[in-house]
Write a structure and sequence with these properties.
Layout lengths: L3 H10 L6 H27 L11 H26 L17
């Protein structure tokens, strides 16, 4: 199974251009792969950071569990966004700076 990265490289280095539909599909596959890889990397970084230590009180450990749960919600939301068939509607950030 070839990855979207290798297919993109082959498309960029070949002499025949991609048709628009194939290019769009390739970009969607790249987005999905990147999202999964990034979420997996963040989850790996989180693994072990929130384990109970011998010096943790019950309250401190509950706080760690809440923090881990919040971090995993974000990781899972990122996975969901990356796997979405279409580009998600992320609200535009307003620029409140004056141009005058």
């Amino acid at each position: 199974m070839s990855t979207a990265y290798s297919r993109a490289y082959q498309a960029l280095t070949s002499s025949s251009p991609l048709v628009p539909g194939a290019a769009a599909q390739l970009l969607a596959d790249l987005r999905k792969e990147l999202g999964v890889e990034l979420a997996d990397a963040v989850e790996k970084q989180l693994d072990g950071q929130y384990q109970r230590t011998s010096t943790d009180t019950d309250g401190a450990f509950r706080k760690k569990r809440r923090q881990y749960g919040a971090a995993m919600q974000i990781v899972n939301a990122f996975r969901k966004l990356a796997a979405a068939p279409f580009r998600p509607n992320i609200p535009h950030q307003r620029n409140n700076r004056s141009t005058s």
